[in-house]
Amino acid sequence: MATIRLEGIDKVFGSGQPALRRIDLDVADGERLALVGPSGSGKSTLLRIIAGLEQPTRGRVLIDGQDATDVPAERRDLAMVFQSYALYPHKSVRDNLAFGLRMRGVGAAEIRSQVDTTAASLGLTALLDRRPAQLSGGQRQRVALGRAIVRAPRAFLFDEPLSNLDPRLRGDTRAELIELHSRLRATMVYVTHDQEEAMTLGQRIAVLRDGRIEQVDGPARLYNQPATTFVAQFIGSPPMNLIAPDRLTASGGVDVPSSAALVGLRPHDVRLLPQPALLRGRVQLVEPLGATQIVHVRTDGGRVIGVTNPDLQVRPGDDVNIGADASRLHFFDSAGRRI
Amino acid sequence: MTRPGRWTTVVIVLLLAAWAFPLYWMLVSSITPDERLFGDPTLVPTRPVLDHYRALFTERRFWVPIVNSLVVAGTTTMLAVLIGAPAAYAIARLRFRGRHLIAAAILSVSVFPQIAILSPLFLILRAAHLIDTYPGLVLPYLTFSMPLAIWLMAAFFRQLPRDLEEAALMDGASRARAAIEIMLPLSAPGIATSAILTFLYAWNEFLFALSFTLGPDRQTVPVAIALFRGQYQVPWGQVLAAAVVASLPVAVIVLAFQRRIVSGLTAGAVKG
After folding, report:
1. How far apart (Å, rounded) are the C-alpha atoms in residues B22 and B129?
2. Is residue B21 located within the same domain as residue B149?
């Protein structure tokens, strides 16, 4: 297994538009790192640079401490699971799994036993003689996974491997991936645009925006101490409410730092109170979700979303006071950075 | 697809008849004796004879042009695919300086009318002592058929998902290995289409074959048939029998690969 280190990676495509700017990132041996960001943020490009499918314009890629920047993809010994699965359509499942071993010159008997073992561990044994076209989406996904596992690579790269699965299967596969990771103790880099997937799959999560890393941290820290307003709004659902401090009423009793340009409040930290608090507003919409309800409130400081206990009786048109525990407030300066 | 209406059916039948009748007439005439052919030909052959065919292969030695055509068209096809496929792959997939320029230059070769380059080509071939030889036909044929073959195959390569190749690279295959193990089998229909079209072009080509051969030893089928006519008469029976023989390989190939040709020609036009 391997460590991966990116040093000062820049990537400029032919159009001149920079795709990645000064990326420094360390992935520890055996770590599960998620790269998350909206589309166009450069996360897939970054993964492809690690894989060797794309060359960085500047900067270095180090695998196990060795400069691999100029090592072609086929000699990096990394495995990648593609969003499209990219199974070889003219080969049986067995030959799909065996291809990587064959390319590395492994003997036929050895290939057979390794393919059988991997297939058994993924429940693919009965499907070994089928072609990819004869498999369901979930089965194809497992074959793609098997093709990565079978040759015990130095690290695994995942490019949104679950986005083509239906939501229920996605949840199951997520849990399996984590289980697989703890079994193999493998280094994994996982690209997704889904913040929830990043939170469950990443031991650490790198949030990308416009080709830059905004923050790299564990899920709890990312949620509780977002470094920027972008991270604050990207991580967590519904997104964090951001309110201009001068809109807060004095009765809130909150000490707002003088340099704060925005005050952040997670919907889950919103309290709807009878007495005057941070903000006054009028309920616009109530979304009952069973375990919770989402309340949309129009206030002087813009729309505020709160997640409350479903037993709380509110109806659209009600006047409410919004309060929060002072320790649950986030402050950001005019550049969007956390104070 | 909906079922065609009555009038559509009528139109289809009429069109098919108009298209197929000359072929039918060719077949019927080739087994009708000369005196009936010029006297009172019937639509349905009443007393078929194989005289024309017998004459074709005895007095005319028609197997010589057939062998010539097979050699020339076969060699042209093989070389066009062997050289054209890697070229098409490079144009479709590799990033190198001047890629678009090269692709455009290749296509521009095929826009010259054949007749415009006939005399310069003749001079070149004569200087190279290639007049009346097989290479003297294969080389010009390659010039004209390769651009089309390369563009067809490049279009086919382009529509294969890039992911597949990248997956092969990640699996440890070199680029060449990935091309051979993954791309080649998947692009077989496109390559077959290009091969067939090249073969048909070389098989049917007339102008170069007429200009660059001197005698019956190197003449191809179309030239041989055209030169059947004597000074005072055209032996129509034999000409038509020869036309049947010349059409046979083409018909067999096209029927055998019908589906492939259609899918190859429309590749990328619609999503499968």
Report:
1. 41
2. no
